[in-house]
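Collaborator request, handled under Task 6.
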Amino acid sequence: MSAADKIFIDNVNSILNEGVSDEGTNVRPRWGDGSPAYTLKRFGIVNRYDLSREFPIMTLRRTFFVTAVKELLWIWQKKSNNIKELDAKIWDEWADENGSIGKAYGYQLQVKHKYPEGDFDQVDRVLYDLKHNPASRRIITNIYNHQDLSEMGLYPCAYSLTFNVTENKLNAVLSQRSQDMLAANNWNVCQYAVLIHMFAQTSGLEAGELLHVIADAHIYDRHIPIIKELIKNKPYNAPKLAIDPSVTNFYNFTFESFKLIDYVYNDAGVKFEVAV
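Structure tokens returned to the collaborator:
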């Protein structure tokens, strides 16, 4: 069993056994038939993943690693907010007729700000500080920009990263306001684990820990029976993540720079509706 499998099982069991239902409240998400998408939820779940030991991908079911990396690069490397530049359909529900998701995600990362050392966007500032100020406790990104929320197709879910370098290891705290445990939990974990590896490799550091803080961790009502069956699946050991060692520039990574070695997963199909 991978560490990600164990953490996921523990998380969903705590929600199933101790969670609070929001049924009857005025919730925003809807199912495809227009009915409210209620949840069973817990406030304040915190998980730690040691990236120096294994890559945190689930084996209870398949996590679509390549597509997750493509979305990661679309946001953090291309700094794009247009789905026409993303080779995936996952953002189609939130894009306008031109393919834009508004001033969300990648848009926020490419906005430049003035610093004593020059003008940087958020990604380039992280890269600069990791090389020049690794002891800093101010290496933070934040895409939850209140003045632009009204122009976003979707408010950011995973919105902030706080980086910390300790003994040459790059650690990060991922702050997330909301998490659909079935649809997005391991997807986000894999993405930000890869991102830490990217920043570490191009800064002469080693990947350390990912600390994932979820404010509202929830299971949608129609997902509850699916989750209960999912955690009964046979788990396997975690695969190894191989990264092209020749890449020394953050912007030279492609989805082909990352390979999972010996990724074995339970192939029982998991189909579910996504609330929007």
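The cover message to the collaborator said: "The two ends are 32 Å apart (CA to CA). The first strand starts at residue 20 and ends at 21. Please let us know whether this matches your experimental observations."
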